[in-house]
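4.2 Preliminary Data

To establish feasibility before requesting continued support, the project team ran the inverse folding procedure on a target of 116 residues. The structure was first converted into the token representation described in Section 3, and no sequence information of any kind was made available to the design step. The complete token record follows.
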């Protein structure tokens, strides 16, 4: 328990600032039963990329790597786009200038849901 709390504090202080604390807490208790109870129709992924960088949507996939006693198993699930938003954030902050980025929201493709 103490190790988990230490890892959570480290991630909070030094990790990616875009991962919500609630998500980190939920994922800290993620186990095999949690994985087996996932509904593939409800899985979503949202990423934000600074402009002018763009992604190749046709090559976007959710990848799962599992270490087993027989070695690694790798599963790739193709994604479909639910939405693309161009966002301009003007914070009027002394330290941070205006930011522009693209937000992509994905879901598993029909093929990926079937394979999941």
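Position-by-position output of the design step:
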């Amino acid at each position: 328990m103490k190790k988990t709390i230490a890892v959570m504090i480290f991630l909070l202080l030094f990790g990616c600032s875009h991962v919500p604390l609630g998500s980190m807490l939920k994922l800290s208790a993620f186990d095999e039963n949690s994985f087996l109870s996932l509904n593939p129709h409800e899985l979503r992924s949202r990423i934000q990329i600074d402009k002018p960088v763009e992604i190749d949507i046709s090559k976007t996939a959710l990848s799962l790597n599992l270490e087993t006693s027989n070695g690694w198993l790798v599963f790739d699930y193709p994604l479909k786009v639910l939405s693309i938003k161009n966002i301009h954030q003007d914070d009027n902050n002394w330290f941070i200038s205006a930011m522009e980025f693209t937000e992509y929201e994905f879901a598993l493709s029909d093929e990926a849901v079937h394979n999941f």
